[in-house]
Each structure stands twice: as C-alpha cells, then as structure tokens.
C-alpha cells in the first residue's frame, strides 16, 4: 500500500499521499438576492468569503488502497478536515467539510486495479 500523509487528515486519519497537482481553490458565496439590475450593474451581497475546495487525484490504486480511502468517508455527511495551509507557511488548520463528487475507473476485476480516482473536499 502506498504511504499516507499527515498533510491531510479526515477525522484524524491520514489520506494516502496523492499524486501530484492537488488543486486548491477559494470561492465566495453570494446571497440569493445578489444579481444584476435592469441597467446591468452587479449588486453583490457576499455571505461568506474564501470557502475552500481541495481536489485530489490518484492515477492508480489497488483494491486495498481504494477501500482504505473510502473508509475515511463511510457514513459521514461531514467530517473534520485538517490540512496544511500553503498560503500560511504550511500551518495546520482544521475545518468542518464534506466530500463532493467522487469517481473511479475499475481497470481490472481480475487484478483488482483501479485508476483515475478523484474526489473533492469542500469546506462547510
């Protein structure tokens, strides 16, 4: 099984070390009454700023590795996500988050190999 990393924890348990290019994005959430008026001017009412989203990708996984990763999220609507904040010198931060969409390709039932496993974690 590949190594785990303490850079990212789900309820205190480490995830498998991801392949390269962990995508991190921040998004503002606007109130429902935000929008453009009749003259085209945007009126924005920001409810929250900088809501985090992390997207992880794994090129290849064994069945054991896939089962471990899925066990981190099993039966959880939300969880404690600990991450190293690269914008703050690698400081560890904890937030409540949920897993958004996830997917995988079952490459071979005979060998138990999977590929292209991806999922996103989004701050609550």
Overall shape: it is: elongated
Largest sheet: 7 strands, antiparallel
Q: Could you estimate the helical fraction of the residues in percent?
A: under 10%
Q: Element order, helices and strands?
A: EEEEEEHEEE
Measured distance between first and last alpha carbons: 31 Å
Beta-strand residue fraction: over 45%
- Strand tally: 9
For the biggest β-sheet, the strand order reads 2-1-7-8-9-6-3
Please count the helical segments: 1
Give the overall average pLDDT.
95
Oligomer: single chain
> Which structural class do you get from the secondary structure elements?
mainly beta
Which blocks of ≥5 consecutive residues have pLDDT under 50?
A: none
Radius of gyration: 18 Å
Map the helices and strands.
Blueprint: E1 4-10, E2 13-16, E3 23-30, E4 35-36, E5 42-43, E6 46-62, H1 63-73, E7 79-85, E8 91-108, E9 113-123
Antiparallel strand pairs: 1-2, 1-7, 3-6, 4-5, 6-9, 7-8, 8-9
Structure write-up:
Helices cover 9% and strands 61% of the residues. Strands 2-1-7-8-9-6-3 form a seven-stranded antiparallel β-sheet.
How do you describe this structure in short?
With 124 residues, the chain is mainly beta. 9% of the residues lie in helices and 61% in strands. The longest helix is centred in the middle third of the chain and has 11 residues, at 63-73.
């Amino acid at each position: 099984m590949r190594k785990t990393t303490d850079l990212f924890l789900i309820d205190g348990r480490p995830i498998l070390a991801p392949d390269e290019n962990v995508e991190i994005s921040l998004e503002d959430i606007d109130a429902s009454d935000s929008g453009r008026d009749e003259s085209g001017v945007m009126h924005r009412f920001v409810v929250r700023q900088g809501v985090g989203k992390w997207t992880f990708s794994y090129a290849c996984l064994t069945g054991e590795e896939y089962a471990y990763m899925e066990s981190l999220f099993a039966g959880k609507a939300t969880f404690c996500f600990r991450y190293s904040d690269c914008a703050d010198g690698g400081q560890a931060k904890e937030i409540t988050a949920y897993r958004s969409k996830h997917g995988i390709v079952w490459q071979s039932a005979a060998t138990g190999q999977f590929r292209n496993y991806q999922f996103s974690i989004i701050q609550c």
